[in-house]
Amino acid sequence: MQNSVVALGGGGGGAKPLQSLAVGVRSSLYTTNPNPNPNRMAAPKWAQKTITLPPQRRGCHLITPKILKEIGQDLSEFKCGLAHLFLHHTSASLTINENYDSDVRDDTETFLNNIVPEGRSAPWKHTLEGPDDMPAHIKSSMFGCALTIPITNGQLNMGTWQGIWLCEHRDSPTARKVVVTLNGI
Amino acid sequence: MQNSVVALGGGGGGAKPLQSLAVGVRSSLYTTNPNPNPNRMAAPKWAQKTITLPPQRRGCHLITPKILKEIGQDLSEFKCGLAHLFLHHTSASLTINENYDSDVRDDTETFLNNIVPEGRSAPWKHTLEGPDDMPAHIKSSMFGCALTIPITNGQLNMGTWQGIWLCEHRDSPTARKVVVTLNGI
Amino acid sequence: MQNSVVALGGGGGGAKPLQSLAVGVRSSLYTTNPNPNPNRMAAPKWAQKTITLPPQRRGCHLITPKILKEIGQDLSEFKCGLAHLFLHHTSASLTINENYDSDVRDDTETFLNNIVPEGRSAPWKHTLEGPDDMPAHIKSSMFGCALTIPITNGQLNMGTWQGIWLCEHRDSPTARKVVVTLNGI
C-alpha cells in the first residue's frame, strides 16, 4: 500500500511539494476487498465537520491556511481521496484561484461588481434585504458554493498557484459556515 | 458509531434542523477497517438512479422537494456522505441558491438574459437550433450542470436558506434527466 | 452484484448507450458490508493519476477523447462511482458542454472575451503577467477548475450531447495538468 501510494505520488510522499507529482504515471487501483496481506488493505474513511469562518469584508479572501488549520490533522490520515467544502450560504461563494498576488482578488471583486448591477441601476425585484443582497445571490451562483479537491499523500493536491477563496458578497460581514467532508483511503 | 455520528451532527440526529449542527467540533474519523467491535463498523454504500424532471418554462425553478421525494428514502440510510446530482443536458443548469423568495429566481433569470446576448444583437455562429440555443449553452457553463451536497444524519446538509434550482435556459420546455449518486456510510 | 448493477443501468450494461438508462428506476443500495455471499460483495476502489494535456491555443477545446484514452481502462473496473477531474491551474478552466458543433466552443470563447475586459479598456491592477492574465483568472473562476461526473457500468455517465471541455484562457499555449480521481465499486 505504502509503495503503491508513493508510486502514485511520483515518489514524493507527503513531504514533497505536490507540484512534483509524476505526470502521466498510471496509478495503482486501490481496493478494500478483504485481502490476506494486511499491507495491501486499504480502509475507506470518512470525516466530516462544520467550520465557522470569521466575518470578512465584502471581497475575495484567501482562506487556504484557515481551512488547513481546521482539517490538516484529518487530511494526514488519507493517502488518496477527495475533500469536499460546502458553504452554507447563498450570498457568498467558494472558488479556487491565484494564491499569491492579492491584486488578483481585488480585480475579481471589481469584475463581479461591474458585471452585476447594484442600486438604482439594477432591475431587481428582490430588494427587501438591501441593494447588495440580490447581486450577492447572483454572484454566489456564478462562482458556486462548493469545491471538491483531490487528496494525495495526506495533502490537498492543488497546483502551485492555486488557493481556496471565500468571496463575501454582502456589505455587512458575517461569520460563514463551511461543511467539510473528507473521503478516501 | 451512532454516538460518533451524533457528535458529528452536534447532537442533532436526523430530526433536528441542520443549521443547529455544532460548529467547529472536530469530527470522528469513520473507517470500514474490519473491526472486532461491530458497533464501530461502518459500511460504505453507493446508490445511483436517474431522475426525470418534468418540463418547466424558461427560468429558474426550486426543485429541492422533487429531488427529496426521489432520493429521501435512500438518503435516510446514510449517516455521513455526499450526494452528487448530474444534469444530462447542455442547455440547462443546476445551482444552489435562495429557497424562499421566488423573486430571487426571477431576478437571476433577468441577470442571465441581460448578460448573454440573444437574437439579432448576438454574435453567435451557432444559430441552427434557434436564437435561444447558444445563449442556453453559455448559461449552462456559467452555472454548471452538477452539484455535490454533503449528507449528514440521513439528510442533505444545506444551509437554512439554500435550495436546489434547475435553471431551464431553452424556450421550449422539455423533460430533464438528473443522475443522482449517493456515497457514504 | 451484477444483477443489481444491470438493474441500476436499466438493463443496459456497459455496452448499451448511456442515454438509454432506465429513468426513475429506484436503484439498489450497494454496500461493502462483509457478506457470506461473495456475489453480493462490492469492493470500494480508488484510482488517482495526473494527466498532462498538450498545449492548446486560447479557446475552448473538446477533450473527452483525450481523457477517456487516459482513464478508460481504470473506468472499466467501476460499476458505479464518481470521476473527479481537477485542473492544476488558475488561468484555464474545465466545463461540460456541447460535444458536436465546434461553433458552440467558438461562440463560448467569444462570450468570455466580450464579458471580461482586456487590455487598455480593463480596470485591472494585476497586469505584470500580461494583459490576458487577469482576464484568464476571472474566466477560470467563472467556469471552474473541477468536474465530477457519475460512473455507470464502466463508463462516464454523461448525456448524449455532453462533452468535457478544456478552456485555455492564456494567449501562450502551455501544457495543463489534470488530477483524475476515480472512486466507486
TrEMBL record, chains A, B, C:
It holds the Pfam family YjbQ. It comes from the Eukaryota. InterPro entries: UPF0047_YjbQ-like, YjbQ-like_sf. Gene3D superfamilies: YjbQ-like. This is UPF0047 domain-containing protein. The lineage of its organism: Eukaryota, Viridiplantae, Streptophyta, Embryophyta, Tracheophyta.
